[in-house]
Amino acid sequence: YHVVAPQNAVLPTPDSTLINGKGRFAGGATSALAVINVESNKRYRFRLISMSCDPNFTFSIDGHSLQV
């Protein structure tokens, strides 16, 4: 089908994730992170965006159950 492109010996690290439009990446500027103050028995929407080709990650909030 096609010729496989040459690769470097080191695979890139997927280390850039945005939470509600805010995030940081290795070697980038120290920018503000998303801080969400929550109240009991209310619903909240968190927008998670992985800026990588390997978008699988685990997201949790200590002491809370999440429903997707």
From TrEMBL:
<feature type="domain" description="Plastocyanin-like">
    <location>
        <begin position="9"/>
        <end position="68"/>
    </location>
</feature>
<protein>
    <submittedName>
        <fullName>Laccase</fullName>
    </submittedName>
</protein>
<dbReference type="InterPro" id="IPR008972">
    <property type="entry name" value="Cupredoxin"/>
</dbReference>
<dbReference type="GO" id="GO:0016491">
    <property type="term" value="F:oxidoreductase activity"/>
</dbReference>
<dbReference type="InterPro" id="IPR001117">
    <property type="entry name" value="Cu-oxidase_2nd"/>
</dbReference>
<dbReference type="Pfam" id="PF00394">
    <property type="entry name" value="Cu-oxidase"/>
</dbReference>
